[in-house]
Design brief:
Shape: elongated
Distance between the termini: 162 Å
Helix content: 25-40%
Radius of gyration: 51 Å
CATH topology of the largest domain: Thrombin, subunit H
Strand order of the largest sheet: 3-4-5-8-7-6
Number of domains: 2
Structural class: alpha+beta
Number of helices: 10
Largest sheet: 6 strands, antiparallel, barrel
Length: 388
């Protein structure tokens, strides 16, 4: 029986390499690989771009003829791969975040339990809080020291003369200033208050010619007390404008608080408070009620006016504030305003301690108030205490 041959056209599908990679990825992820989609060409000699090739072959007739594959549609593989890839990435990120959180808890929990110092932000907050508290304390200091030591800061009034024996005094004048308690019946003030002729060029010229200087009277009025207290010099500095006066009526000063002396002048720029009686009787009269002012306005330097103010509890010191600008030797320079009558007043630091004694001011320059350091006051105080 003769062998007959029949020609068949076999369509072979060339698989896309990209699709093959995606199938492998699905297999790795454990997903079902969808059937590949085959593409047929209806015209011989024409094929899609690189997708299908035509092969010609012969087979014996007794062999079973090849059947055409039945192509069926499949879902879009790329979308499945993208969704699976996103799920895998999200899972990996979630695990990484969980591990990071556990590591932070493991690291910081023991530090918090052991009381580790705060971080930089907490330190800055702590520093700012301390600065605000210090600022509040500085602002409240003038009121604090005035309320605490007001009654221990007195107004000094006196009369002195310079002259030759058996002659009328060549110079006779009044003096006013401030003094404050630093010991048992002892007041600190300036030398030019305790010895008013000190620094007076006219009086010094007479003294050089043989004249004698002397105090006629020297008293102090304390706030809240109607009675003046007699004073006398206890210790006078030979090198600086400082002096210690002794009160002769211990009953008036008994129980009044002593002003604390600072161990040092402190740093430049610190807040200072000056308390005293600038302008003397005139300054206190100006602060008096209207009726008293009208009656005493023209009796500025009268001892009777001071006594009347004391009887009305109008001996009241004034307070000014400023900053310590410089320290030269035992001299303090600050910008707290003052005037004559304020000489001898205490200069407080921000802690309520006396760092100096107010002594002078430069006329025409508000920032030029001068004081003497408390370091020069201590030897005088010791000397006065040893005289008892």
């Amino acid at each position: 029986m003769p062998v007959r041959y029949r020609t068949y056209i076999i369509f072979s599908t060339v698989v896309n390499p990209r699709q093959t990679g995606e199938d492998n990825l699905l297999q790795v992820l454990g997903l079902q690989v969808p059937p590949a989609q085959e593409t047929e060409t209806q015209q011989l000699g024409a094929s899609p771009e690189g997708a299908t090739s035509i092969l010609m072959a012969e087979s014996q007739i007794h062999e079973s003829p090849l059947s055409d594959p039945d192509p069926s549609p499949a879902p879009h593989v790329s979308a499945v791969v993208c969704d699976s890839w996103q799920q895998m990435v999200q899972t990996v990120l979630g695990v990484a975040l969980l591990l990071g959180a556990l590591a932070m808890v493991h690291y910081y929990a023991p530090m918090a339990a052991q009381g580790v110092p705060p971080d930089d932000v907490q330190k800055q907050i702590h520093d700012l809080t301390a600065q605000v508290e210090q600022l509040k304390q500085d602002q409240a200091m003038p009121t604090t020291v005035l309320n605490r030591y007001r009654n221990s800061i007195g107004y000094i009034y006196g009369v002195y003369q310079v002259g030759f024996p058996n002659q009328r005094p060549a110079v006779r004048a009044r003096v006013s200033g401030t003094g404050f308690l630093v010991g048992d019946g002892l007041l600190a003030t300036n030398r030019h208050v305790a010895e008013p002729w000190y620094g007076d060029s006219e009086a010094q010229k007479l003294i050089d010619q043989g004249a004698t200087a002397m105090l006629e009277s020297l008293v102090v009025f304390f706030p809240g007390s109607p009675t003046p207290v007699a004073l006398s010099p206890a210790s006078v500095s030979k090198t600086s404008d400082l002096a210690i006066l002794r009160a002769h009526n211990a009953d008036v000063v008994r129980g009044l608080p002593l002003l604390p002396l600072a161990k040092s002048t402190g740093s430049l720029g610190q807040l200072v408070t000056v308390i005293g009686y600038p302008m003397g009787i005139a300054g206190m009269v100006a602060k008096s009620p209207t009726g008293i002012y009208e009656r005493l306005a023209y009796r500025h330097n009268d001892i009777n006016a001071a006594s009347e103010l004391a009887a009305l509890s109008l001996i009241r010191p004034s307070t000014t504030c400023g900053h310590l600008g410089d320290v030269v030797g035992d001299k303090l320079i600050y910008d707290a305003p003052t005037a004559h009558g304020g000489s001898g007043g205490p200069v407080f630091n921000a802690r309520g301690e006396v760092i100096g004694v107010n002594s002078a001011y430069m006329d025409g320059f508000s920032g030029g108030t001068l004081g003497v350091s408390v370091d020069s006051l201590r030897p005088l105080l010791q000397e006065a205490e040893q005289q008892r």
